[in-house]
UniProtKB/TrEMBL annotation:
Name of the protein in question: Type II pantothenate kinase
Domain of life of the source: Bacteria
GO process annotations (BP): coenzyme A biosynthetic process
Molecular function GO labels: ATP binding; pantothenate kinase activity
EC numbers on record: 2.7.1.33
Cellular component terms (Gene Ontology): cytosol
Organism: Marseilla massiliensis
UniProt-listed CDD domains: ASKHA_NBD_PanK-II_bac
Length: 280
């Protein structure tokens, strides 16, 4: 059997991986000005860099919002489309080794997918994610370069931005330690530094996402959440997520290949007849 290529096609960024013998092969991301250019650029570079011939490719599986712009087989190879939420679930379960989880896909916004054994179900989401961080950074910091914002945030002090329980109460509230956030940006001053604003913005997005995931599992036995998508690359995840874990007694997991999970899941869907795909 040949290699199966999974491609998560975005509007300007495409992620591509191979699956061979159940193993993930050389994940890669490519940026371009439009989804078609991004897809074909990523595919060509992936084959070239990994010394893969077209005849070595058994199948191509597409997913992501940009895949709607692709209406014919990639380079004449057998090509199908996989549902994005199914791809999220399959990829996250594969790389985490868990199947009783909520997958938290942090993209432009955030989608929540419940995985329970063979069942993968999209349960909702929130309009807060990387797009929120970019837009607010553009307004408040005059840049939408997330890496620059993250670097800036390393030098910031979030206590200058967020209002904590300890700032408004002389003692802990039931179930809430003094360090818990009472109000995001509730302590911000008009002359806040760019560094403090940067850490405040990142904290706002990551905490909103993390707590939304936890609240989405109320009434179920799920206590593990697999975080995927580009925002998992932010080093501030290691600052924001542990307090949420401690407060709720849960685990927020960032697995290997977290940013490539959707592409991985798209490739894996080829091997599983339980999930519907669309042939091109």
């Amino acid at each position: 059997m040949g290699i199966v290529i999974g491609i998560d096609v975005g509007i300007s960024t495409t992620k591509i991986v191979g699956i061979s013998g159940g193993n993930v092969v050389s994940p890669m991301r490519i940026k371009a000005t439009d989804p078609v250019t991004s897809l074909y650029g990523a595919f060509g570079k992936y084959l070239y860099d990994n010394k893969i011939q077209l005849t070595d490719v058994e199948h191509v599986m597409l997913t992501g919002v940009g895949s709607a712009y692709i209406s014919k087989p990639v380079y004449g190879l057998p090509t199908d489309k996989a549902g994005e939420f199914v791809a999220d679930g399959l990829g996250a379960c594969h790389v985490s080794g868990k199947d009783h989880i909520i997958v938290v896909s942090m993209g432009t916004g955030t989608s929540l997918i419940r995985c329970d054994g063979d069942r993968i179900e999209h349960i909702g989401g929130i309009g807060i994610g990387g797009g929120t961080l970019q837009g607010l950074s553009r307004l408040l910091l005059k840049t939408d370069d997330i890496r620059a914002v993250s670097d800036m945030a390393v030098r910031g002090n979030v206590s200058n931005i967020n209002l904590r329980i300890g700032d408004i109460s002389a003692r802990p509230l039931p179930g809430l330690p003094m360090t818990a956030v009472a109000s995001l940006f509730g302590n911000a001053k008009s002359d806040a530094s760019r560094e403090d604003i940067a850490i405040g913005l990142i904290w706002t997005v990551l905490q909103s996402v993390g707590q939304s995931a936890v609240l989405a599992s109320i009434g179920s036995s799920i206590r593990e959440y697999v975080m995927i998508g580009n925002l998992t690359l932010l080093p501030q995840c290691r600052m924001v997520f542990p307090p949420i874990e401690k407060l709720y007694g849960v685990k927020l997991i960032i697995p290997e290949y977290a940013e490539f999970c959707t592409a991985i899941g798209a490739a894996l869907s080829y091997f599983d007849d339980r999930y519907t795909t669309e042939a091109l």
